[in-house]
Structures are given as structure tokens and as C-alpha cells.
Amino acid sequence: MESINTGPDTGTLDTRQCARCLADKPLSHFGIHLSEVDGRNRHCFACERQRLRFVKRPAVASRDIRHERASKAVRSALKCGMLTRPSDCFFCHRSDLPIEAHHYMGYEPQFRLTVQWLCKSCHAFANRKRSDRRWWKGWEGAA
């Protein structure tokens, strides 16, 4: 076996020392890492799995999940013909901007297809006014 002298973390050509557990393991126990000298990760698979168990992943907000499901329901309804996208905005009646579906009743399953078709600027304005229920009075039945 020929050894490579590239630093304290490497052993011979066939083995490498894990930087975490300090055990000499075959190269097949290390992942690919192109920025390392020998092209292998510094930690073995077992140590890397253990490290990733304790890494905090950002929690996905339930609103984001509901929003994505509601958007997917609208896309599916458009595709199969249950909904049709109008050519002009519900509020300003402009047709030169992209028309988007606004879930004015919320993202719950029973309201996923209850939308108002708004232009991009009116949609942004409506999302800012979402918490102001007085602003929505009178518009709910007109969708």
C-alpha cells in the first residue's frame, strides 16, 4: 500500500481517518467532497448521519403547506376545466397584467377553489389587507 502525505486526516490510499471518530476506515465509507484534497468527505457516513440528526432544520409553517395545497388545487381545477381564468382583474378590470387566483376565504380545504381572479398588483394589495375584515365586506359573495 502506498501512502499519500496530504495532512493528518488521511491515511493510506485505501483507508482514511475520520476527523470525528478518528477511526481508520475504507474510502468507501466516506462520501464525495470535491473541495477536499483527496476528493472525499472528512467524516465517515456514520458520523455524518449522527451530525445531521442534530442539525436543526427550519420548520415549514402550516400556512405555507395549506397555501401550496390550495394553489395546487386551483392549478388542477384549471387544467381539468373546473375553473376558468378570466382575462381581466376582478377589482381594477385591467387585462395587461398577469391574472392570479386570490384565496380570499383562506387556504382551508373547503375554500381551496373559492378564489377571486386579481391582477398582480391588486393581489399584492389584497394580501396586505387580508387581516382587515372591514375591507372585505361586500366582496365575499362577488367571486
H/E element order = EEEEHHEEHH
Number of domains: 2
Any idea what the radius of gyration is?
28 Å
Outline type: elongated
Distance between the termini: 76 Å
Query: Strands of the largest sheet, in order across it?
Result: 1-2
Question: Sheet with the most strands?
Answer: 2 strands, antiparallel
Class by helix and strand content? alpha+beta
- What helical percentage do the residues reach? 25-40%
Q: Approximately what portion of the residues adopt beta-strand conformation?
A: 15-25%
How many distinct helices? 4
In terms of per-residue confidence, which ranges show pLDDT below 50 for 5 or more consecutive residues?
A: 1-11
Summarize model confidence as the mean pLDDT.
80
Number of strands: 6
3D architecture notes:
- There is one protein chain.
- With 143 residues, this protein is α+β, with helices and mostly antiparallel strands.
- It has 2 domains: 1-57, Wheat Germ Agglutinin (Isolectin 2), domain 1, CATH 3.30.60; 62-142.
- Helices cover 29% and strands 15% of the residues.
- It has 4 helices and 6 strands.
- It has helices at residues 45-53, 62-80, 120-128, 133-136; strands at residues 15-17, 24-26, 30-32, 40-44, 99-102, 116-119.
- The strands form 3 sheets. The protein has a two-stranded antiparallel ribbon with strand order 1-2. Strands 3-4 form a two-stranded antiparallel sheet.
- The longest helix has 19 residues, at 62-80.
- The chain is elongated, with a radius of gyration of 28 Å.
